[in-house]
Design brief:
By secondary structure, this protein is mostly helical. Among the domains are: about 220 residues, no CATH class; about 120 residues, no CATH class. It has 31 helices and two strands. The chain has a two-stranded antiparallel sheet. The longest helix is centred in the C-terminal third of the chain and has 34 residues. InterPro entries: Cut8/Sts1_fam, Cut8/Sts1_sf. Keywords: Cytoplasm, Nucleus, Proteasome, Protein transport, Transport. This is Tethering factor for nuclear proteasome STS1.
Length: about 800
């Protein structure tokens, strides 16, 4: 099909005009262009837009232009540096590798004689293998490749002149990227640097201080150290005065940062990362060359500060562990004894390295280690020297391979003793299954080390000493932390270690299934293993619900059917028949109250309390009072004066059953919760507190009870009651402050502490009291304004 003809477009040409001369035409164009390009301000300085020209330039032309600008105007450097984005670790390492490669290639006649390019990896970049600090082949020693005979008879001055530009370039690259990964304080930097360079470095550190991470700093310093050590000896001697002082400061600042983060702020690092750090420092310290002595001192500082990361145990010679011991004396004894024996446990080092480690640790002369677990301090001081400051002695594994020697500065000689010095955060290795379990409890009893990763790492160090008790402790902690994968890992570890489980292990498995939402699966396994009677401890685990994140499942929405199933398989837990039967009563009472069966829960509690013996111990009484608290807490859901009187009658009924029952501050706190919507809540709560203190003693009052009474007084605007309660709280704080912390040593716990004992939430109470004081002040001001208004009306 033919297309229709397109209409011809009209020619848009200029109309015919009179001819003009070329000069006039060019003049008019120039005038027009000048008018168009003229700036609105009318000035001729802005006739060229620099941004348009820079946008058209290629990227490789911008660097020379910017460099020329900085050479003409050096003051612009302080303006441009903060505008440059922080370089990534990969960018910095690539720049260091490129500069180090140029420096090695510039060495004369080094093409065939120099070793291969140093390995570099640090966990990123696949173009090069990981270097020796992460457990790979060690750093190549430059002495074997760059010997003096391979220089071709050239003078060292000539070689240095050839290397000088590349050395300057390498040092410039190192110092340019150093502030982005530095922990060195500004005041401690080298005083030889110029004021301008120091100010620029200070500016970069202050800007990017929050973005520095110890792992990135280690990788940067390790790469820089390896590049330095892989250079020829002549290059190292030229680089040493320029790099080693700053490198020493950076390594030590990094170790001090780890010390502050871990030992003072409670920070944590992955075990694999710490092992890589330690392996890298060990590789650098065992190398030879210009910076080997520096890295040995850094390694020793690492061991003294954060060596407990790997649970390292340090053994020293007691005869020379005094303030007057010298490096030469300790070195001589080390050589005369057994130089092949490693000073540190499970680590093998060269002889010269152990010699340098021995004098680095001091011990007290008036303490000794006797046998394996006896620690005595009654040994007389021989020789009579002052003990080193801040030195602490702890039991450690005996080290009897070093014999006594002569010491010119210490006479008479001290008898051979076995002591060790360890930093405050370390814990000795366990030597039996019982000691391993006690050490785990000791770690768990401190809020600083009550961490699941720390306990798992310590548990993994003791292969062959793990027991069913240690596994059960870790499994219960993992379930509490909702770490279901860790639970499976520990159960697999028990199977691999061929450790049979017990009833506690079966109970923890049941708890794991119930918390994971597999209630029916857990019930099937327990009934299959115990077809006749289910043990009470297993039966109670089915009352514990899942975590809040798993409560939306369909299985959890039918608690009535599960409760009926459990009641049909009810085991016997009468008093004096089953140990810990009161816990079963408390669990069942709480389950009944959650199903809105308060009368059944009260009947069960009354039957159990009436069957109690005449005399019960304190712990049993506390658990019975916890059952009463559960019943009163259910009544506290109803808020009103009538509900308060009902709850008080129920409380008096339960307390009158047994003479050992006494209310606790928690009981009074729950009882006062029913007065929240009462009109006279402040007055009634103050009267109730006074009566309870008169009848049961002052121990029924604590901070929470006083805070609840004070809050009710503010609601009712009874500020006189608030002032009395607040004065009592202030006196209580002063008594606690004057008493101070107890200095008695805490015994090793036999069981795990409750989390409410480890974390008493004192800061939370302080915040609530502060907000309550602000509310009381506002009410006081409102009452004063109202009184002033009334006085003004009366006067008018």
């Amino acid at each position: 099909m033919d297309r229709s003809p397109t209409p011809e477009r009209p020619k848009r040409a200029a109309p015919k005009r009179a001819r003009v001369s070329p000069s006039a035409e060019s003049g008019s164009k120039e005038e027009k262009d000048s008018k168009e390009n003229k700036a609105p301000g009318g000035t001729e300085d802005n006739d060229v837009d620099v941004g348009v020209l820079l946008a058209s330039l290629p990227s490789q032309s911008l660097l020379p232009l910017l460099t020329s600008l900085l050479s003409v105007q050096p003051s612009l450097k302080s303006i441009i540096l903060p505008l440059i984005p922080r370089p990534t670790l990969e960018t910095a390492l690539q720049a260091l590798a490129q500069s180090a490669r140029k420096l090695r290639d510039a060495y004369p006649y080094s093409t065939t004689s120099q070793p291969g390019t140093p390995t570099l990896g640090f966990g990123f970049g696949n173009t090069r293998p990981v270097f020796g600090a992460f457990g790979k082949p060690p750093i190549p020693q430059p002495q074997s490749a760059f010997s003096q005979n391979q220089n071709g008879g050239m003078r060292e001055s000539y070689i240095v002149s050839r290397l000088r530009p590349h050395i300057t370039e390498f040092v410039a690259a190192c110092m340019s990227y150093m502030p982005y990964f530095s922990y060195v304080a500004v005041a401690s930097q080298s005083a030889s640097a110029s004021t301008t360079a120091q100010s620029h470095s200070t500016t970069l550190q202050s800007i990017h201080k929050e973005h520095i991470h110890p792992s990135e700093t280690y990788q940067f310093l390790a790469a820089l150290t390896e590049h330095f050590m892989s250079q020829p000896p002549l290059t190292q001697s030229s680089l040493g005065p320029l790099l080693l002082p700053r490198l020493s400061e950076e390594w030590k600042a990094w170790v001090h940062k780890l010390d502050e983060s871990v030992n003072r702020q409670g920070g944590m690092f992955a075990a694999e990362v710490v092992r890589k750090w330690e392996s890298g420092l060990e590789t650098f310290a065992s190398s030879q060359g210009e910076g080997a002595e520096l890295m040995r001192s850094v390694r020793d500082l690492w061991i003294s500060k954060v060596g407990w990361f790997q649970w390292r145990e340090c053994f020293v010679i007691t005869q020379f562990g005094t303030c007057k011991s010298t490096r030469e004396a300790a070195t001589g004894v080390a050589w005369l004894a057994n130089p092949s024996r490693s000073v540190f446990n499970n680590f093998t080092r060269p002889e010269y390295l152990r010699v340098h480690l021995l004098p680095a640790h001091l011990v007290r002369d008036n303490s000794s280690f006797h046998g394996k677990s006896v620690y005595r301090k009654s040994v007389p001081r021989v020789p009579n020297h002052r003990s080193p400051r801040n030195a602490k002695t702890v039991p450690a594994r005996p080290f009897d391979s070093l014999n006594a020697g002569s010491n010119d500065e210490s006479s008479p000689l001290a008898p051979p003793q076995k002591t060790a010095v360890r930093v405050n955060s370390t814990l000795e290795r366990a030597r039996s299954r019982k000691s391993l379990y006690k050490n785990l409890l000791r770690l768990l009893s401190s809020p600083r080390t009550a961490s699941l990763p720390i306990l798992l790492d310590y548990h993994e160090l003791h292969h062959g000493l793990r027991s069913v008790d240690s596994y059960n402790l870790l499994i219960s902690l993992a379930i509490r932390h909702v770490s279901h994968g860790v639970v499976q890992f520990l159960l697999n570890g028990m199977t691999a270690d061929k450790i049979p489980g017990n009833l506690e292990t079966e109970k923890l498995k049941t708890r794991w299934f119930v918390r994971s939402g597999l209630w029916e699966h857990a019930w099937f396994q327990v009934t299959a293993a115990h077809p006749k009677t289910i043990p009470l401890s297993l039966w109670l685990e089915f009352f514990h619900g899942t975590k809040r994140t798993a409560r939306n499942t369909a299985a959890f929405k039918s608690p009535e059917a599960r409760f009926q199933t459990l009641m049909q398989n009810l085991p016997v837990f009468l008093p004096n028949e089953v140990k810990g039967s009161v816990r079963a009563v408390r669990v069942v009472v709480r389950a009944m109250l959650s199903l809105n069966r308060p009368q059944s829960a009260l009947t069960l509690a009354l039957r159990y309390f009436n069957g109690l013996p005449r005399h019960v111990n304190v712990k049993w009484t506390q658990q019975c009072v916890a059952v009463i608290d559960a019943l009163i807490a259910y009544e506290a859901k109803k808020r009103g004066l009538l509900d308060f009187y009902t709850a008080r009658r129920k409380l008096n009924l339960l307390l009158a059953i047994h003479p050992s029952f006494r209310p606790t501050p928690k009981t009074l706190y729950l009882l006062l919760g029913t007065l929240r919507q009462a009109k006279k809540c402040g007055t009634v709560s103050w009267q109730t507190l006074t009566k309870f203190k008169t009848r049961w003693g002052p121990q029924v009052e604590d901070r929470r009870v006083r805070r609840r009474v004070a809050s009710y007084a503010v609601v009712e605007r009874r500020l006189e009651i608030f002032d009395k309660v607040f004065d009592a709280e202030r006196r209580s704080r002063m008594l606690v402050r004057e008493a101070g912390p107890t200095e008695q040593p805490q015994p090793i716990p036999s069981t795990r502490k409750a989390f409410r004992e480890m974390f008493p939430r004192h800061g939370y109470e302080e915040r609530l009291w502060k907000s309550l004081s602000i509310r009381a002040l506002k009410v006081k001001l409102q009452l004063q304004h109202a009184q002033n208004d009334r006085d003004r009306v009366i006067s008018t």
